[in-house]
């Protein structure tokens, strides 16, 4: 009876060590003692993405000379949207692998998804269900680095409220030219600095200006101008019109 209890305690402790993550698996021989692997993913990863990661992982496990901790590092290099990999060994010689990815935040330029580590990942990596829930933004990406958005743009997005996304399209040109284009009246835009995202009071003033322009009938179909409420100045809003196209972001509308 005593020997049986001791064996059960030893088995529980063994599972505890293996199950807390890749870096806790001490020996390469751990892979050799496994008959099969079962991988589990976040629900918002597309099926093809899951299959690619599964193939990579199982192929890597065929090399019994590579430590599991190294395989996890290689996987995160190959799939940089992976956040954590947790591995445990089940009693039936099955390796249980749970893969968590960085959470999708925004759709960028209709081609990429911004995840919460600042990385831009191709939208095809994720399911259509999660893509449809993301707010869309347009960001001018530097030629030298299109894998990450500028840090200043990341900080700016942190202060954009759901109300703004529901009523405006956001265009980030650079730190000094950030645009909110009205969804209902595309010929009206608010121009602000990245560190001064319009608050409720400022939006109220901009809406009053927009209503005056509506009353004047300047938003008709023949209008070829963008009316801009420039709120980058202290205690004032500068309103002016520019032709569509040109520099400083107006070509983004």
Descriptive notes:
This protein has helices spanning 2-18, 29-32, 47-61, 68-78, 128-131, 151-157, 162-167, 200-215; strands at 36-41, 82-89, 94-101, 104-108, 112-115, 120-122, 135-139, 168-174, 177-182, 188-192, 225-230, 238-243. It is an alpha/beta fold. The chain has three domains: 2-101, no CATH class; 103-140, no CATH class; 150-252, no CATH class. The strands form two sheets. The protein has a nine-stranded mixed beta sheet. Strand 4 and strand 5 (112-115) form a beta hairpin. The chain is elongated, with a radius of gyration of 26 Å. The model is unreliable at 1-34 (pLDDT under 50).
Which features would summarize this protein structure in a list?
3 domains; three-stranded mixed β-sheet; 8 helices; disordered N terminus
Produce the secondary structure layout.
Elements: H1 2-18, H2 29-32, E1 36-41, H3 47-61, H4 68-78, E2 82-89, E3 94-101, E4 104-108, E5 112-115, E6 120-122, H5 128-131, E7 135-139, H6 151-157, H7 162-167, E8 168-174, E9 177-182, E10 188-192, H8 200-215, E11 225-230, E12 238-243
Parallel strand pairs: 1-3, 4-7, 7-8, 10-11
Antiparallel strand pairs: 2-3, 4-5, 5-6, 8-9, 9-10, 11-12
């Amino acid at each position: 009876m005593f020997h049986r209890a001791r064996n059960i305690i030893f088995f529980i402790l063994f599972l505890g060590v293996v199950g807390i993550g890749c870096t806790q698996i001490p020996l390469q021989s751990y892979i050799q003692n496994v008959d099969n692997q079962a991988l589990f993913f976040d629900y918002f990863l597309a099926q093809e993405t899951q299959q690619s990661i599964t193939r990579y992982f199982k192929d890597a496990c065929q090399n019994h000379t590579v430590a599991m901790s190294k395989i996890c590092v290689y996987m995160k290099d190959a799939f940089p949207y992976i956040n954590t990999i947790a591995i445990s060994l089940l009693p039936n010689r099955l390796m249980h692998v749970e893969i968590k990815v960085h959470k999708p935040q925004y759709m960028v330029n209709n081609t990429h998804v911004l995840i919460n580590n600042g990385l831009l990942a191709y939208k095809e990596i994720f399911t259509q269900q999660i893509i449809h829930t993301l707010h869309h933004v347009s960001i001018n990406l530097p030629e030298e680095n299109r894998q990450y958005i500028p840090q200043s743009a990341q900080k700016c997005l942190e202060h954009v409220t759901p109300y703004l996304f529901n009523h405006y399209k956001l265009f980030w040109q650079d730190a000094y030219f950030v645009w909110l284009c009205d969804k209902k009246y595309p010929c009206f835009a608010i121009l602000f600095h990245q560190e001064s995202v319009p608050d409720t009071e400022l939006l109220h003033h901009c809406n009053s200006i927009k209503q005056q322009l509506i009353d004047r009938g300047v938003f008709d179909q023949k209008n070829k101008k963008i009316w801009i409420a420039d709120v980058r100045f202290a205690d004032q809003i500068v309103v002016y019109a520019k032709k569509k196209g040109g520099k400083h972001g107006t070509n983004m509308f």
